[in-house]
Amino acid sequence: MSIFKAQRVIDQIRGRSYEETLMILELMPCRASYPILKLVYSAAANASNNMGLNEANLFISKAEVNGGAIMKKLRPRARGHSYMIKKPLVI
Q1: Do 88 and 69 meet the contact criterion of CB atoms below 8 Å apart?
Q2: Mean pLDDT score, 64-84
Q3: Separation of alpha carbons 16 and 14, rounded Å
Q4: pTM of the model
């Protein structure tokens, strides 16, 4: 998905409580909200299992979206020039 589409969703939930974040993400019509909802569920499960924290006291302190890795290749063009091909890596 595009980082700009995911960034719109992340901006809505940054700094909110866990329960409020779940409500926002479940009601948001963007397709980018479902993977972020899964990420928030996973982070809350990790916090409760590994650190023994209560899910009611959790909040989103930091959330950011960055672009992934890009494979760069050169394609030969006319008169000795070259053209850059930027292909996103999907792992």
Answers
A1: yes
A2: 93
A3: 6
A4: 0.77
| 31 DSSP assignment | T
What is the pLDDT confidence band of residue 52, given thresholds at 50, 70 and 90? very high
Q: Which residues contact 68 (CB under 8 A, 6 or more apart)?
A: 88, 89, 90
| Tokens representing residue 81 in the block | 């020039």
Which tokens in the block code for residue 76? 């030969």
Alpha helices in the chain (DSSP H): 3-13, 18-27, 33-50
Beta bridge partners of 75: 83
Query: Which amino acid is located at 86 in the chain?
Result: K
